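I keep forgetting this: the sequence line spells out the residues, with the fold written below as integer tokens. I include a record here:
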Amino acid sequence: MKLTRFTESGLFRSALVLGLFAGLGPGLRAQDHPVMCTNASLKGTYGFYRTGSTPDGPLAAVGIITVDGKGNSVATQSISRNGDYSFDVTFPSTYEIDADCTGKGFFDGNEFVRIIVVDDGRGVFMLSESEGNAVYGVGRRIHK
């Protein structure tokens, strides 16, 4: 396979960034992060996607989640589970964000997702907590 100059330079930059992070090693911890987060760090409307595998097969979803900065959220998403589609599924939940910008999401009092607030609240990374799932997601704020 022939790589284009763009791809070669992108691969080089990726390898360089990964090398820099690898050089930081175990000395870098979330609690060393100088920014303090709270529930208010997530506020506004975020577009997101989720993808991965579940006991029912592969999952892909896109949606919008609105968070109030006080620990409450409502997501509306379109989901494909093993090729079966569900559109405009609404999902209310709550969340808690710790000072180190890590957090948890809850549905009916049960934890279902781990989250990390990134880019001063402009983005969020998610990992499903449901048993048997290997689902991750990424969200980006579109309205404050």
In short: The chain is about 15% helix and 55% strand. The helical segments are 5-24. The chain has one domain: 39-143. The chain has a mean pLDDT of 84.
